[in-house]
C-alpha cells in the first residue's frame, strides 16, 4: 500500500541524512591523505595483497599517521590531529583514529569501485588488535558502548568491504 511506501521512503531519507552527517563529521580523518599514483593504487587494491600500518600518539594533543603499501612500495599515507574533548583524548583514541582514517579511505574506495582489497593490518596497540579481531562477534550494543565508539563504528562498517588476511601487533616502543 502507498502508506508503507511513504514510510520506507522517509526511513531511507533519514538514513541518507544520517550518513551524510557522519561523512561530514569524519572528513578530517582523510583530509591529509596522499595517494602517490591513483592508477597503481587501484591496481594493487584489485590484484595484490596490501599492508596497512597505523600509529597514534598523545602528548598534549593527539596525532595519527598510517601508510598503505604493496610489497615494499608505499601507495598512500595519511596523518592528522585527533579530535575529541579533553576527557576523550587518550593514547588509545590516537591509535584508533589512525586506523579508522585508513580503513575509512579503503572502505569508501571499496564501496565505490566494487573492489574487495586483500589486506594485512599492523599496529603497535594490542587493545586495538583485539577489538578488530573481535569484530566477527558482531555485537552492535558493544560497538556503541565501548570507548571511542564513534571511531570504532567506522571500522565496523568498513571492514566487511575488505578481505582481512591478518591483524597483527608490532612492537612500536622500546
How would you sum up this structure, described in words?
The chain has a 6-stranded mixed beta sheet with strand order 1-4-3-2-5-6. Helices cover 47% and strands 25% of the residues. The longest helix is centred in the N-terminal third of the chain and has 25 residues, at 2-26. The mean pLDDT is 86. The protein is of the alpha/beta class. It has helices at residues 2-26, 38-47, 91-113, 126-133, 140-145, 149-158; strands at residues 32-35, 50-58, 62-70, 73-81, 118-123, 163-169. It is built from 6 helices and 6 strands, in the order H-E-H-E-E-E-H-E-H-H-H-E. Helix 3 packs parallel to helix 6 (149-158).
As laid out across the biggest beta sheet, the strand order is: 1-4-3-2-5-6
Q: What is the 3D shape?
A: globular
Counted by DSSP, the helix tally is 6
Q: In terms of per-residue confidence, which ranges show pLDDT below 50 for 5 or more consecutive residues?
A: none
How many angstroms separate the termini?
A: 66 Å
Alpha-beta classification: alpha/beta
> Which strand-content bin applies to the residues?
25-35%
Which radius of gyration do the C-alpha atoms yield? 17 Å
Helix content: 40-55%
Main β sheet profile? 6 strands, mixed
- Summed over residues and divided by their number, the pLDDT gives a mean of 86
SSE pattern, N- to C-terminal: HEHEEEHEHHHE
Tell how many strands the DSSP assignment holds.
6
